[in-house]
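G., before I forget:
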Amino acid sequence: MELEKASARLAPRSPWQAVDLGSQMFRRWAWPTVRIWLAFTLLPFLLTLAATSSFESFWPLVLFWWLKPAWERPLLAWYSHALFAEELTLKELFKRWRHYALPGLMAQLTWRRLSPARSFNTAIWQLEGARGDQVGLRHRILHRAPSNRAGMLTIVLFHIEQFMAYGMMALLYMLIPWQFNLEFSDWFFEQGILQTLVASTCLYLVLCVTEPLYVACGFALYLNKRTWLEGWDLQLGLTRIGKRRRSGTVAAVLLLALLAPVLPEPASAEPTPKHKTNTEQQQVIELLAGEDYMPFETRTSREWKNRDEDASEESSWWEIFWEAFFDSTDDGAERSSKPLNIPDTLIWVVFWALFAAIVLWLLMKVASQIGFSGPIRKRKHAIPTHVAGLDIRHHSLPDDLEQAVNSALEENDIRTALSLLLRVSLATLLREYPVALAAGSTEQHCLRTLQREHGQASGIEVLKQVVNAWVRTAWAHRPVSEGDVRELLAQWQSVRFVEVEHG
Amino acid sequence: MSQPNTLQEAAALASDIEQRLNQALIGQQQVVREVLIALIAGGHVLIEGVPGLGKTLLVRSLGKVLELDFNRIQFTPDLMPTDVTGHAMYDQKTEQFRIRRGPAFTQLLLADEINRAPAKTQAALLEVMQERQITIEGKAFSLDEPYMVLATQNPLDQEGTYPLPEAELDRFLFKVMIDYPDHNDETTLVNMVLDGTIRASLDVDSLTPATDGAGLLAMRKLCDSVLIDAEVLDYALRIVRTTRDFSGLSHGASPRASIALARAARVQALVEGRDFVTPDDIQQVARPVLRHRIQLSADAEIEGQTPETVLGRLLEQVEAPRQ
């Protein structure tokens, strides 16, 4: 790599300045890169659209999207040459396709497909040609702190893509004559084939702009990281100084030639070695990337913001909690540049737990919407504690129903006697045949539910008579006779007696 | 014509009317029950359903079974208020203004697709529904009792419609949802048309009157003697009041809804053959009384909830009364 030929100034930058450099590269070479994108993807995309409309399936579009790492490779190949003053033609790109497209492509299309740092990592495979264990080593070196923000770049550009695509669809919607009577919601959310094709085309047109930009920014981040690690700026500076010295030396030699008879023997400089072997170079890179030679030193300290100095030194419980929490997570603090010193592992665990929870929640929501209950067992209803305001908890009921009813009848309290009978019969039946009841369930609603779900159950017919008697007593203020209550009690006991005998 | 003198007779008559209506309108028992309750309670009904479910047939059947006058107005965007109520016109022969009475001068008025007419025309019905009178040229004309407006609207095809204002909606005692009959009922209906038991034009000639307007008014009067316990009345009020502060609702029901709920529950008890109201009666009529009087919040609408689901939740949460 001849760094002096680079058309951009190679200097250590912050990640966002590097992204700026990437956007500058895209702006300078916008048309060639868009042309390359179209040359490599237009035909596959049209085939994808044809397949989508033929099979009425969105899977061809998913496949096209999944192959994005492959579509990005020609762009990176072109940028990597163009930056060093060699603009490849389309013909050359097609010819060299095997050389730059295949290294690491399988990994990028499978387990590394969803890597947010794709724009950065592609350069490791494609430009460095890393293989096997070397890939992991290069990943570790190039992804060391400070972060290169490649993941954030992906997230930002993903959103830009979506906004632009939806904006384009909205624009199209506004241009459709009103006579078509097309609803806004139908246009955006209908799963028809027309909508799918229009949405895909809009997204593809947006990708014509965002993909070359994305690749350029990722490449710029990669260059920036290597500039930091390998001191490319220093190397270039030294080369320039060397050149100046050599030109100065030529002038001096001419001057010395004139003055040669009067001057002593000229000094001869030791020749500078021009080439290093690859192994030596790699060793130097690793040495420079090591912790001892990292140009950054991260010091982390914690203190409370806006804390009143005059306040008592006793910490509140939450201050103690946070201190204990941070102390327990300080193992990676020395290497971390994050203000809270939370180890990366913890963040990733939380992130993936949240991700898994969201996916699970979405699956459950979709399953419930399509009415799929799956192997989940039908929920057993809880036994209610009250029905229509009547307490039917076990401890509130008499141990001996007959005695309690009789004593109420002796006091001529028919309402209490009937209430006892109703509560006991409800409690017994609901314990044996649980049904879903809410706070607003009335006695009649409870009866109807039991009849609907357990119509054949013994005791429900007696419950119906008890409920009718109770409703008349409670809401019409016309108590049934004492004999009616005794008759209902006898019926209830006979039903229970038969059940116990057979049960 | 028979007129009920006791609650038992009134309950029997109501059952008879219901049975006759169900003979004409097959597979819509719930709709028939709710319309009958509204009619006995002296309220108006807003019926919502797609075309072809027998809304007109229901009103014609009501007119026939109860011997009531029946008029139908098809509401359209160019319908004027005077087309509904009537107007004064100059008679050149007598050289005087003469009142030409509109179709609202009847006993059963079917306002078909009421939301197709602009608000001004819809508002012409306000006085009719609330005051039971029509004012033309400053002169008020009372309407014959019993009087009932049955308005219909189509839940589909909302293009070019004018949603009914809250004030007008509140004047309907019930909003009745009419849906497709189930498979068995539809089979029965088609078979009856095919074997000539009923004609495809769904005429009501075969129906015979069960009572007349006077009988209906007698039933209405008897409803006043249906007992409603203080706890049950309180339950009705708690339901209505909960709508004013319930999640998923931005707008609750007015006190008119409380009155409507109590009135309708009494008739529901009568139709069930009881002379007292139970909490179950309140629950039975709560949905048709409240579904058009509440307004869903934006969040609830986005979540796809409907007035039915929200009311179902509300009825589950309001505690049933205890004695």
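The mean pLDDT of chain B is 85. Chain B touches chain A through 22 residues (CB under 8 Å).

More on Monday.
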